[in-house]
Structure formats: structure tokens, C-alpha cells
Design a protein that fits this description.
Number of strands: 14
Largest sheet: 8 strands, antiparallel
Helix content: 10-25%
Structural class: alpha+beta
Distance between the termini: 17 Å
Oligomer: single chain
Order of helices and strands: EHEEHHHEHEEEEEEEEHEE
Shape: globular
């Protein structure tokens, strides 16, 4: 598991997951489509599913080389616009042909970044590591923060049956987190949002192929404002506002930030 402590002195510039409203419906539809393709694959689960010997069919790693897309320096990023209104200029700067698949990818990513978040969350996109850290420390109200991510053993199958092992699940003390999701773009772009009433756990797993992983699980304590037709409720046969909380694992490409507190 990536596990780093950051302070205000950090300035290295080269180094699900909240669903509501329109964005919620789109994300839920995507999750449903994925689940229909892989009918035994879990997308969401309940917090009381997190116990040793529990088997979950899950995709922890993405596909392709998206995880290795580098951050550009802040100086370079600031010279490239990041707005739907300036798409022609962006394509020219990045030497991307208008109408190409790559141009469509850029357009969709920017539109996703510009879409409004849920009423109780702060949302923004980061095009540099410094802006990501600035957002995390600002929304969490502390400069003493941790960055954690799911870690999957190299060579492991991206999607397979994982068994929760008896190595010991760690429940982190923070009740609010900032989650950064890797976006599809020609350079590193993360969509990050601050989510309240969400606890975080680090869960030890062993894959069916023998590989090991330490997955970061985000468990949403309050789902009362989610879309009542959200796929998470159908998948777990519960209604919104349910207890126990609804959880999902973060992919290896995602990063979660939280106050640096002692785990329980």
C-alpha cells in the first residue's frame, strides 16, 4: 500500500467515488453495464462483508498504461488550457487531430471535470501533483495528511476472486476523505472530491491466482441522499440510507487522502 505523509513543504511537481444526480446516474449505469458483462463481479458491497474468508470477485487494477501517465510540471500545465470552451486550442497544443478518438477522450474528460459534484462534496480536477496536494490539505483542514492507495502484486490478474485474509484489516480513524480518481487524458489528470461521513479501511486480500493485494475500501456511512435507483442498492438488495454502510474498493490508480490519525 502506498502510504506517505505530506507536509506543507511538498512542492515536487514532477512526481464510484461519489454518485449522485446526473453524474450518479451515469456512473451507476456504467457500473450496471460492467456488472452485466461480468455477472459475478462485485462493484459495491456492505461493510459487514469485510471479514476474513469472505470471497469477492473484483477488479482492483485498471487496464492499459493509464497508471504510468506522468504529471507534467506545473509550469507546462499552466501553459495548456483545460476548458471545454478552449478545446481547439488544447488539441493544437497537444498536437491532437480534431475528430480523432484521442480528441473525443480529451473532450469527455474535460466535461467530466467541469460537471457539478454532489451537494455535500467539493469537487475539482488536478493537472499537477501540487494542485492535488493543495486541494487535499485545504478540504481536510490539515497539512498533516496521509496519501494511501490500493496495492496489487505485479503480474496479478486485474479482475479475479479475492479472499479477505486473516492478516488483519486496518480501519483508519478519519471520517472524511478526499479521493482522487485517475482520468483518461494525454497527461496525468485526477478528478478529486472531498467526501464526508466516509470511513476508510485497508483490507488484505489474496487472489485466486495466488497474488496478494492490500485494497483501500471506502465505506459510505450516509447514502440517504443518493439516487434511489443507484445500482449499489440493487446489487446489495437494500434501500438508500441503509445500515450497514455501502463500500467499494479503490482501484490501484486512485489515491485517497485523509488526516494523519492513528488507525484502529
Amino acid at each position: 500500500m502506498v502510504h506517505q505523509q505530506y507536509s506543507t513543504g511538498v512542492n515536487d511537481e514532477n512526481t464510484p467515488f461519489r454518485f449522485q444526480n446526473d453524474a450518479a446516474e451515469d456512473a451507476s449505469a456504467e457500473a450496471k453495464t460492467q456488472a452485466e458483462v461480468n455477472r459475478n463481479r462485485r462493484v459495491f458491497f456492505l461493510e459487514n462483508d469485510l471479514h476474513p474468508s469472505r470471497v469477492i470477485n473484483y477488479r482492483l487494477a485498471g487496464s492499459g498504461n493509464s497508471s504510468t501517465t506522468p504529471f507534467l510540471s506545473r509550469k507546462t500545465v499552466e501553459s495548456i488550457p483545460f476548458s471545454s470552451s478552449q478545446l481547439p486550442k488544447i488539441l493544437d497544443k497537444l498536437s491532437v487531430k480534431p475528430g480523432s478518438d484521442e480528441a473525443d477522450l480529451i473532450k469527455v474528460t474535460i466535461q467530466n471535470c467541469e460537471s457539478q459534484g454532489a451537494s455535500d462534496e467539493a469537487k475539482q480536477c488536478a493537472t499537477s501533483l501540487k494542485s492535488m496536494i493543495d486541494f487535499a490539505t485545504s478540504t481536510l483542514g490539515s497539512r498533516n495528511v496521509l496519501a494511501i492507495a490500493t496495492e496489487v502484486e505485479q503480474g496479478a490478474a486485474p479482475m479475479q476472486k479475492f479472499t479477505i485474509t486473516a492478516d488483519g484489516m486496518k480501519r483508519l480513524a478519519a471520517n472524511n476523505i478526499t479521493v482522487c480518481h485517475k482520468m483518461n487524458y494525454v497527461h496525468a489528470v485526477f478528478c478529486y472530491h472531498s467526501i464526508e461521513k466516509t470511513t476508510t479501511c485497508v483490507v488484505p486480500l489474496q487472489g485466486a491466482d495466488g497474488s496478494k493485494a492490500k485494497a483501500v475500501a471506502a465505506c459510505h456511512q450516509d447514502t440517504s441522499q443518493w439516487n434511489p435507483n443507484h445500482y449499489a442498492f440493487k446489487e446489495n438488495n437494500v434501500e438508500r440510507g441503509t445500515v450497514p454502510p455501502i463500500c467499494h474498493f479503490l482501484k490501484a490508480e486512485d489515491v485517497a487522502w485523509l488526516p494523519n490519525q492513528k488507525p484502529t
